[in-house]
Amino acid sequence: MRERIILTGASGTLGHSLATQLATSPNATVLCLQREDSQHRGFPAGIEHQHIDFHQKEALREVVQQFRPDCIIHCAASGTQFPRLNWFEMVRFNVNVTLDLCESASLIDKCNFVYVSTGLAYRDQGRALTEDDPLDTLHPYGASKAAADLLVRAAAAEFGVPLTVVRPFSFTGPGDNGSRLFPSLLRAAFEQRPLDMSSGDQVRDHCSVQDIAAGILAAAFFGGACPPALSVYNLGSGDTIPLKRLIEQVASELDLGVKVNFGARDYAPFEPRFMVADASRARTTLGWRPQINLAYAVWQLAQESFPTLKLRRPRERCFP
Predict the structure, then answer these.
(1) Which of 52, 11, 4, 53 is closest to 31 using CA atoms?
(2) What's the confidence (pLDDT) of residue 19?
(3) Running along the chain, 320 residues long, what does each successive block of 10 average in pLDDT?
(4) Are 210 and 14 a contacting pair, CB within 8 Å?
(5) Which of helix, strand or coil describes residue 165?
(6) Residue 207 forms beta bridges with which residues?
(7) Regarding beta strands 203-204 and 241-242, do their DSSP bridges make them parallel or antiparallel, or are they unpaired?
(8) Structural domain count, the chain
(9) What Å distances lie between residue 314 and 7, 232, 249, 293, CA to CA?
(10) Domain of residue 165, CATH code
(11) CB count, 10 Å around CB of 241?
């Protein structure tokens, strides 16, 4: 039996990885909904796509009703890159569009709604975060996703929508072409200039984007069985490594010649100092764990975005 899937956010790093993995499934019919101003990155064969104004609620509902999905994977978000859009516009997209899609799902019998939240939604606890830890942050993007996370769970409970919430922590890999950490590091190496950073004593959890996408699909389809009415999963490596040491490890594996000026910049406003996932629920329930070595994911990104940059190819897998 084929699954009919609507995916949002396929022009982004994570969404594109999800589309690529879904394209390999012989049992999936996929429609990617994209913002009208998003860039078309080229979808794998067999993946349908359509541009839409997500703020036009009735038009959005009509598309969903016509396609009649078994599952909606909502990966689209505003505010993941710098400079961010207007604060209130970011919140309107991240909250309102999520609820509009959930409402559309409620009109289709047994349509599973998968909301891709973020580890930035949590209150910093100074330790690895579990799914039961409070959502509470002043980080602009994290706060908007936390608000949507809370509201979509309340809406799903009220209207009987099967809901899966996944909270990915940091990731990189193919398609990560914006202003985040690892593309900035590679760009500095390519341009043969130093990269100014904060002190690097923040503790961060990073995975390959392909691993995060695989975790989302494992949660969405629950091994082929019907997912529970509500499931919440963290997705992350669980590694408690200061950012400075993590960057040095990746640079060493790649033989990346770049000078990083740690401490040359202040921390970003409202930046959590300790953001690490306790992903034991995903390991136990879904059998998911990261497979791809982080340095290999960065190497893949370099091959795509800076192909003339001379790097050592690291091992592919996390474990030999």
Answers:
(1) 4
(2) 95
(3) 88 94 91 82 79 95 96 93 79 97 96 97 97 96 97 97 97 92 96 96 96 96 73 97 96 96 93 96 96 98 96 89
(4) no
(5) strand
(6) 171
(7) antiparallel
(8) 1
(9) 32, 33, 11, 8
(10) 3.40.50.720
(11) 17
